[in-house]
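Deliverable D2.4 — example input (structure tokens):
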């Protein structure tokens, strides 16, 4: 584009006419604009929702888990652009990343583990059971238990998941890996014993050093009769 054409009298006249029209419209709009608020507007949406029997709430067509102690209670969900806050009895109890769209779910096994322990049959029928395998080692551990124990596997696995929630997911996952790589079935009690050992290993025994009697060395200095 040749910019020299913009410096001609005709081009300058056209630009001035267009700017004049824009200036007039801006003046009209400024007459009806309101003063900006002193504080930032709160875009948070609030919903009063009841915690279902599966320890979940539904907000904007998405499902979130909350702690099982809130089952049956009504909580206030505060939904902002990036997060969901769950309030109960005027106190903040959970802060969760917001789900986008509809039909999604965000389940934390730590929220529901106490409920699963109290209801042994709940694990088999839990709608979001796939979310109860935090790592692939947990999934493989459950498959190993099913193969070895059949119907008893659910109870065994829930106990392992409880250990992960209370003692540390990384520790339990590492122990499951160790058992499975050794081709051993990770029974819950054995995993619990291993967790206890990892957290409180047996102290290394201190060697017992007998007291040194210096008089014994004096005998080495005495002449021996059998020496010529």
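Example output (designed residues):
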């Amino acid at each position: 584009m040749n910019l020299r054409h913009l410096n001609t009298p005709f081009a300058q006249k056209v630009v001035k006419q267009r700017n004049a029209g824009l200036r007039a419209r801006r003046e009209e709009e400024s007459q009806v604009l309101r003063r900006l608020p002193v504080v930032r507007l709160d875009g948070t949406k609030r919903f009063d929702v009841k915690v279902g029997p599966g320890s979940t709430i539904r907000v904007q067509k998405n499902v979130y888990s909350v702690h099982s102690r809130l089952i049956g209670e009504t909580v206030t969900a505060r939904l902002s652009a990036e997060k969901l806050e769950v309030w109960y009895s005027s106190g903040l109890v959970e802060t969760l990343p917001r789900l986008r769209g509809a039909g999604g779910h965000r389940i934390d096994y730590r929220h529901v583990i106490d409920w699963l322990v109290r209801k042994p049959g709940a694990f088999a029928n839990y709608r979001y059971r796939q979310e109860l395998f935090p790592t692939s080692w947990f999934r493989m551990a459950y498959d190993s238990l099913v193969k070895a124990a059949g119907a008893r596997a659910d109870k065994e696995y829930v106990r392992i998941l409880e250990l992960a929630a209370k003692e540390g997911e990384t520790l339990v996952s590492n122990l499951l890996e160790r058992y499975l790589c050794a081709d051993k079935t990770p029974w819950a009690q054995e995993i619990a014993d291993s967790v206890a050992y990892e957290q409180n290993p047996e102290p290394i025994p201190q060697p017992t050093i007998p007291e040194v009697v210096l008089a014994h060395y004096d005998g080495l200095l005495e002449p021996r009769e059998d020496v010529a």
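Strands lie at 45-50, 56-59, 62-65, 74-79, 83-88, 91-97, 105-106.
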